[in-house]
Structure formats: C-alpha cells, structure tokens
Design goal:
TIM Barrel; disordered C terminus; single chain; globular; 19% strand; alpha/beta; 9 strands; 9-stranded mixed beta sheet; 7 helices; 33% helix
C-alpha cells in the first residue's frame, strides 16, 4: 500500500484520531468543549471518544457533533480496563465493565459488533497499562503503533517491529489526547472520509499511521488549560469514576 499524499491533495483519504478522552474519565475538557475545539482545528474527519470504562462521554460527543458539527464523524468508544492491560473498543453500543483478561474484553467488544484495538501495547507509566506481547496471539482488530506522547517513541518502534513479525494487524496512529489541542497530531490515514469508511478500512487493513508526536505548540496550549483549571482537577474525574466502577 502506498503512502497517501498530504491531506490537502488527498481527496480520497481521510484522517482519524481514535483515542481521545474527556472529563467523563481522566480528560480535562467536557465532550462539548472537546468537539468544538476539534471541529475548529479541522485536522481530522473522524474521531473516537474513548474514555476509561465508560461510553457516556462518547454518546454526548456524538450527539453534539451531529447537531453542531456534522462534518466531524464521532465513533463511540471506550478504553476498557483489564487485568492484562488496556483495550480500546470502537463502535460500541454500551459501556463495558472491567475484565480479568484482555481476551474477555475483546470478546465483549466483538459481541457488541465493535472493533478491539491494542493501544500503546508496550507503554507503561503515567497511569497506562498495556497488553504487551498479547498482540502476537489475541484476536485484536488493530494495534496502535504510533502513540502521541513523545515519551512513547521507543515503545512505538517496538510495537511496529513486533507486529511486523506477528499477526500484521492493521496499524493505527492516535494522539491519546486528554486535552484536545493535540488531537490529530498522531493520526490514522484511511481511504474515504466517514466513520463507516474508517471501519471498513480497518477490517480491510488499508489503514496506516501518520503524523507526528505531540508538538511543543500543542503541549504549551494544553499546559495553559491545565494552569487555568488547576492541576488537582486533572485526576479528579478519573478517581471518581474508579470509585463508581469499584462499587458496581
């Protein structure tokens, strides 16, 4: 598969960022704020909201985008916590609970007719838990080989090498942005422009990762948001959600 040209000349190609968070988990902005900013940036045509252990923010974001920014496709997703690392589900119908194993999470995602993605498979720290070598044998639908955090560069290289010698899963690039100013810097190229085009491209393995890691400019804009809203609030939504999850 050839590398697509730059977006301004790639009329047949779209760009997607399929790993984003809002205040419904540990993101820093609400679904409405997130959609408004991403629509204004106009960098990608499709996004997925993938809050930790809930799809609530994704449904809010999708409905808001349909009414106010219909040019932006929003996929309902979730970053599912498992005892073997995080798994992102795309095209979900409802929230999923914690699972003991990554295999159980993948099965539950597939039962909702969703797609299961191994995100940042070799990244650990900053609250991230990863599935590691499970990308060699579990029935994932795709693997994230370009994770937007600059500190993830060595892990990104390892993920791509392991995948090339393993299942050769469709490869994605995503920002994993918790503040939307870095959305679409690491992204996924796909033939077409809609959410359904993106799904078909993953299933046909015609996607490929693109873009850079988070830029200095976006990190400064993110830091401005954090400074204005108080750093202590950054972890509060995640902690509250974990408490709620543990009570289920």
């Amino acid at each position: 598969m050839t590398t697509p040209p730059k977006l301004k000349r790639a009329t047949g190609w779209g760009k997607a960022d399929l790993h984003l968070h809002t205040t419904h988990s540990d993101g820093y902005m609400s679904p409405v704020e997130t959609i408004d900013i991403i629509a204004e940036l106009a960098i990608v045509q499709v996004i997925a909201i993938t809050d930790h252990d809930t799809t609530e923010g994704a449904f809010v974001a999708r409905e808001y985008a349909r009414r106010h920014h219909p040019q932006l496709g929003v996929i309902v997703g979730q970053e599912v916590t498992t005892g073997q690392g995080d798994v992102v589900g795309l095209f979900l119908q409802a929230s999923l609970p914690h699972f003991a194993t990554a295999a159980a999470a993948i099965e539950a995602i597939h039962q909702q007719d969703g797609l299961a993605v191994a995100v940042h498979p070799y990244v650990f720290g900053w609250g991230m838990e990863s599935v590691n070598h499970a990308i060699l044998h579990l029935p994932f639908d795709a693997v994230e080989v370009r994770h937007g955090c600059p500190l993830s560069l060595p892990s990104n290289v390892l993920a791509k090498v392991v995948n090339n010698f393993g299942q050769r899963l469709p490869e994605l690039g995503n920002s994993d942005s918790h503040i939307p100013y870095s959305t679409g810097q690491a992204f996924t190229w796909f033939p077409g422009h809609s959410s359904e085009d993106l799904r078909q491209a993953i299933q046909a393995n015609t996607v490929r990762p693109g873009g850079s890691l988070w830029t200095i400019k976006s990190l400064l804009r993110n830091w401005t948001v954090i400074s204005e809203r108080d750093w202590s609030k950054y972890e509060a939504p995640a902690k509250q959600h974990l408490i709620q999850t543990e009570r289920r």
